[in-house]
Design goal:
Length: 213
């Protein structure tokens, strides 16, 4: 059986163009952090290092579970790239104010299925380092995150137009007696940025919330 997040986790990865509340459980990620304009090489190089490791983890798991029983997971689809975004000081408290991209701080990540342990991650990391040496691999970490209660929306189009979708999310909070927790936000890129024209990008925007006191 192949596990495909597109089919099995629609509540998290198939939102429409309106804001909705979701409960995000604990999730495992491989991740790497950086700073600056995401249009620069430093960002794409970090993404490339992440994907090299993610596919190594996937292929090693598939090889180990070839011929598994029908009810067992033989392989899985690689999860989409995600990014958590912030600004480098309190002056940019609203993380979706993007006028000065050089001040952006980010952590990009790729989720891993529950069956991937830290041991499996380390074995795959060692293999990638031998086959495709890259100093950025040393910056990748394996962590578990739990977002809990969140509001999310599907944004279609240019990244620079995201404030329009954030406005919809903010209105939704007011209408539903919710308030935002912190000023970071998460983006989940449902299409490959390197192969998709900017106006056709589909990005889930998400931030943590709580009930208004």
């Amino acid at each position: 059986m192949k596990y495909d997040w597109r089919k099995q986790e629609k509540e998290l990865y198939s939102p429409r163009g309106k804001a909705v509340v979701v409960e995000v459980p604990k999730q495992k990620f491989i991740m790497i952090s950086g700073k600056g304009d995401p249009n620069q090489d430093a960002f794409s190089e970090r993404v490339g290092a992440l994907y090299a490791l993610a596919y190594s983890i996937k292929m090693r798991y598939k090889a180990e579970h070839k011929g598994a029983g029908q009810d067992e997971m033989e392989e899985f689809a690689v999860y989409p790239l995600e990014g958590v975004w912030d600004m480098d000081d309190e002056a940019g408290a609203e993380a979706h104010v993007l006028e000065d991209k050089a001040r952006l701080i980010y952590t990009v990540m790729i989720r891993q299925p529950d069956c991937i342990t830290e041991e499996r991650y380390r074995e795959a990391l060692g293999e990638v380092k031998k086959k495709k040496p890259n100093p950025l691999l040393d910056e990748i970490t394996f962590r578990t995150c739990e977002e809990g209660l969140c509001v999310q929306i599907l944004h279609t189009g240019l990244f620079d137009d995201e404030p329009e979708s954030f406005e919809k999310m903010d209105r939704f909070l007011k209408e539903n007696q919710l308030e935002r927790k912190g000023h970071t936000h998460r983006e989940i890129y449902l299409k490959d940025m390197s192969r998709t024209s900017p106006e056709k990008m589909k990005t889930i925007l998400r931030y943590r919330v709580c009930e208004k006191q």
